[in-house]
TrEMBL record:
Protein name: Adenine deaminase
Binding-site residues for Zn(2+), renumbered to this chain: H14, H16, H194, D275
Keywords, in A-Z order: Hydrolase, Metal-binding, Nucleotide metabolism, Zinc
Name of the top EC class for this enzyme: hydrolase
Organism: Pseudomonas asuensis
């Protein structure tokens, strides 16, 4: 089944480039820049990847991103991910990056962007993997800081297909960013947002009604609100679901509890994605495989999930 799932043509629509930083590359970049990591070796770092919630993961993820300093680093990070896409027949990807994670450390916006953009361009030309980059705002920071990030992005408008919203969900509802999303949309950006990962269904309503998003990232807590489910089904709003992420961050206690196949069978446009594969134990094929092993996902269901990902592309 693994080889069959791996060969299935698919798109990845929920992937944080910073979350593809494998421990081996983290150590290599640390050495490149003379940075001392607070872990003895790759094994010790991997052992630390045990989380009780989203925030525990984010603390380690932001710490890890500290080794990303130069255009070459961002190129190497992105290229390694694109090689995985090629290996797993991900023919199209729409990755996020978090500019504020880097600009707040003094790394210029254009250094980050140039490295990523060059790798994405090479990915299309040399690997045949097409892509569209999504600029994501950090929701634990202020609206004002998101506005400044949008200002920095505008001179590079054509580099992006959309804006997104990620980081600590609880206490940072989509409504906090209504004005910056209004401005982004007036500049021609499409919008997506993380909602209903740890946060309540109300955050999904806000993402739809206040931010006017065209896709919901995660969205699994929509299952708690029947009226919301009808809305998502009627409008065929795609949900970019991340099964391994949801179990690693204890959104579900166990993969056998995951609701993705129930949502699929109810008619929601759900897709399978890896979120932060270096931290959660697998890329897209491993996510599909976990659904097969723990939920008995059939080949027919896998085909429909993969087709949903191709249909839900923004470009
Ligand atoms: N799963 C996730 N939820 C929110 N923000 C993130 N940033 C990286 N991964 C994330
Ligand atoms: Zn995410």
């Amino acid at each position: 089944m693994y080889d069959w799932l791996n060969a299935l043509p698919k798109a990845e629509l929920h992937l944080h480039l910073e979350g593809t930083l494998e421990p081996e590359l983290m150590f290599k970049l640390a050495e490149r820049h003379g940075i001392q990591l607070p872990f003895e070796n790759v094994e010790a770092l991997r052992k630390a990847y045990s989380f009780n919630n989203l925030q525990e993961f984010l603390d380690l993820y932001y710490q890890g991103a500290n080794v990303l300093r130069t255009e070459e680093d961002f190129y190497d990070l992105t290229w390694a991910y694109l090689l995985k896409c090629k290996e797993q027949n991900v023919i199209h990807t729409e990755p996020f990056f978090d500019p504020q994670t880097h600009t707040d450390r003094g790394i210029p916006f254009e250094v980050v962007l140039r490295g990523i953009q060059q790798a994405l361009k090479d990915g299309e030309q040399k690997l045949g993997v097409t892509s569209g980059l999504i600029l994501s705002f950090l929701r634990h920071l202020s609206e004002d800081e998101a506005q400044k990030t949008l200002d920095q992005a505008l001179p590079f408008r054509d580099a992006f297909i959309a804006v997104g919203l990620d980081s600590s969900e609880m206490g940072h509802p989509p409504s906090k960013f209504k004005r910056v999303f209004d401005r982004a949309r007036s500049e021609g950006f499409v919008a997506v947002a993380h909602a209903g990962e740890e946060g309540p269904p109300e955050y999904i309503w806000e993402a739809l009604d206040l931010l006017n998003v065209v896709r919901i990232d995660h969205g699994v807590r929509a299952a708690e609100d029947e009226r919301l489910l009808h809305r998502l089904i009627d409008q065929q709003i795609p949900l970019t679901v991340c099964p391994l992420s949801n179990t690693k961050l204890c959104v579900f206690d166990d993969m056998s509890q995951h609701n993705i196949l129930k949502l699929l069978e109810r008619g929601l446009k759900v897709t399978v994605n890896s979120d932060d594969p270096a931290y959660f134990g697998g890329y897209v094929t491993e996510n599909f495989m976990a659904l097969h092993e723990s939920l008995g996902m059939t080949q027919d269901q896998a085909k429909r999930l993969a087709q949903n990902s191709l249909d839900a592309r923004l470009v």
